[in-house]
Write the structure tokens for this entry.
Amino acid sequence: MPDTLRQERNLLSKVFGLRTSIREQKHVYPKLLRDSKDHCRERDCVDIMTMSTLVDFCYSDETAINQGEFQLLANDLEGNGSTQTTKFPKESTIDLPPEYDICNTEVTRITLAEAAALEARTADQCQCQEWFVARSTRLTASNFHRIVRRKKEVNDAFLKSLFDPAPFFNKFTQYGKKSEAPALDRYLERNTRAHFHPCGFVVNPKFSFLGATPDGKVCEEDICGILEIKCPYNARGMSIEEACAASPDFHLVKVHGGGFQLKAMHRFNDQVQGQLMLTGADWCDLVTYTQKDLHIQRIYPDTKVHKSMLNKLSEFYKEHAIGYLKAKKA
């Protein structure tokens, strides 16, 4: 790369790579980050994949490229398919029953290529307006449990909570948001084979009325899973074992042999299985973080759960959501 290009001002430096592990070259990483800052002090951001070596630099005048778009550009730079596994959604192995085709409305309908582009554009999640728009006509994985387990009558108040939720911010959400970064750091320290990518809003074309936003993508070699981080406020000063003993509502349970696992009937299980169904990921690492402890459980797709959940969600959307959304638009 010519030195004159390196010295250009007001350019966005994009650092890409996914060749070999940088773990064996730890001295390279700080220098790489420092040099990129020197070359472009006014850059929007620099994305360095921490399990990789440098492949190329690419410059642009743009100043508003989000993290997800970095990944799509990285794919194009490499051209060898090594990062293609980070594209979500993958084609689903289950089908929407024909009687629910009506749920894939004109508003939500999307192609696989369009869905991958949407995921990339919304990688900034709640900092991105398109993320809110995409969610506004779809049932999202964080609400799947509320829908499939609901016993009460479905009313407008419940539908409003799904499609027009009031913003809220309290000590629980504040703690959870603040704790995500240290939780991710601890996870990557423990899982040294993994490299992390941000994840946007994922919509699967086969059931485009559903959506999910995992906390990230985690790749190990050529396999890409997803990440879901939980930082329970009430367990913040406890070990995982203490949290299990302190509250029957805690999402993990101690099992024979001394380990811990996610409760099958807990809302987080429906959320994680929903994310797996929509992304097509090979697995989800559920990370539970406290100030004293960290627990990682790798959860695999359960096709039986997916089919049951899909039927219930489809029935709900057909019977309640379509009419509500039409009335809201009128």
Notes: Residues 89 and 113 are 9 Å apart (CA to CA).
